[in-house]
Amino acid sequence: MNGQSFPFDEHPPSHVLESLIVSRSHRGHIQHTVSDPALIAKIIGHRKNDYRQVSPHPLTSAWRRPPPPDQDSLVSCFDLLPVGVTVPVIASAAAEAPARWRKLGITEINAQAEAACVSFDVVSQALFSSDPAVSGADTLMSLSSILEHRAADKDKGRRLWPSFRMRPQRVVSDLATTQIREQLTRMLAARLDDPGRPNDLVSNLLIAAAGKRAQTEATAATISMAERLLLNGQIVGGRTLTRILALLIHHPDIQVRASREAIAAAAQGPQDSFWRRTPYLRQIISEALRIYPLGKSIERVAIRNDALGGVEIRRGDRVVIWPAAIHRHRSLWANPDRFDPDNFTPERRDRLPPYQYLPFGIARSASIVEAYSVAQLATVLAVWLSQYRFAPAQADIHSGWQPPNGDRLMMRILPIS
Q1: Which of 411, 408, 308, 325 is nearest to 18 (CA)?
Q2: For residue 164, pLDDT beyond 50
């Protein structure tokens, strides 16, 4: 499979793949796109004081009011993310869709709609125990507004989130973000001194932060991390889950192997431990995130003259780190345009240099988000693949798997007897 035949392909432009550092004039300044992991380590490591951020890392501009804790402070509050408490809940929520398919005799699904719906259920239950304060229709609509704002255009937003109507454009992302922040604040205030609070991820985050920070700081850190997990859980569940299913349909041999692994895991014990016994499925997820990384490009501005890889960097030049380009670079991967889960066998993953794989960007909190996101994806996929196999809808077999109207990606589902 070449680089243009992936479903939903987002192949980087060819010029950024010509070298590990590519320099071009862009909008009146010189822009250097850096793909060399060793140079990236310098830019954000021991030479980070030579470069300043162009745009901060938070997910949207609105999420900087009030400003969240800095990355070091945020990560230090949550050394060990208690992902394990969410897995049984994720498995239970994920099992609802196959049960409904079987009960109603459904043989064809809109994969994007199913993925978007299950992601909201999973995130609501795993993070907040479906607390009405942050799990109702208002929260869903607020998330819709934020995701629409983040999309390149309204049509792209509809493709990613077809299961519900987007808010009118006049309701901007800032308002939606403020609403979610207020909902989280009220919920945490009610839980702080409640010994009967539910044992979900947000409660565990709050307890972990309260053990290291004063109450105000602990609450702010928990809200900031909950925001990241909430929005990324929706993006991972809706977009990434759909794309993994599409990749598996393109590669039926890989799907069969993953399905057999999930079935064997199901036979060994409860669903909540699926993801721990499915190493090949986690390789599939890692490879899918290589092809479709969630980390956006990171820009820095040189504040003094420098040199990177023999290229002169002048004061005021822009330096861009683009995960999508790094993940598809011919100098870094043997077959960058091929979907190959064996890129992430334990042996190969251990040999990857730092910053060659950036599925969630470079922020320190990305490792925390990644831990939860991989658990979410692995559990949902393990539950589904242990019960069903997925195939192209008959009408779309020759369509190249691009949704014909931008809103629907239909798949046949075949129950496993």
Answers
A1: 325
A2: no
